[in-house]
Amino acid sequence: METTPSTILRFMNVIFWVLFIGLCIKTGAILVSFAVSLFVNAEGAKDLYQGLDLSQLYHFNRSLYIQTVSLFIALTGLKAYIAYLVVKVFLKFKLVRPFSQQLVALFSQVSYYAVGAGIIALIASGHSKYVLKKGIEIPLHWGSEEILFFAGVIYILTLIFKKGAELQAENDLTV
User: Fold this and answer.
1) Between the CA of residue 85 and those of 21, 71, 148, 164, what are the distances in Å?
2) How many whole angstroms separate alpha carbon 130 and alpha carbon 170?
3) Per-residue pLDDT tens for 119-133?
4) Terminal CA-to-CA distance of the chain, rounded, Å?
5) Could you tell me the CA-to-CA distances from 109 to 43, 89, 99, 104 in Å, in that order?
6) Pick from 139, 117, 129, 136: which is nearest to 52 by CA?
7) What is the pLDDT of residues 91-146, one digit of tens each?
8) Distance between CA atoms of 73 and 117, rounded to whole angstroms?
């Protein structure tokens, strides 16, 4: 069986839909269990999401717990929104005319939101180090370096697509 670019694009579109839905579910689950741990039962902090135990932090300092989980929710929410934007890229992308201003705008949004997610991850990483100095370990890897690297790559792709869209529009005018 021969793989064509359109088959690979369809497969990647399905992958990003699954990723988007999974990140939405993860964000919602964290949000609900966070609300439960705050307003219903403090024991909810023991298993916030897939075994994530922040009960020590909750009992040590509730405001640090709220800050930590809020950063986690913001980061997963931004990742979900970035996945949604990538799904929109797949919906707009056409192999016949790959460069368009719509794609440039979507790539720009992805890169901006990725920078925002990277900044939130950097803040969260610093916050985790601060909490660790207090003697409480937060079992989360924020991935700030990876996210910022991703943002840089997307920004470069945005510049390439912007130039491609300009060249394609200029070519359309001369033909």
Assistant:
1) 13, 21, 17, 20
2) 53
3) 999 999 999 999 999
4) 38
5) 39, 11, 16, 9
6) 139
7) 888 877 888 888 889 999 999 999 999 999 999 999 999 999 988 888 888 888 99
8) 11
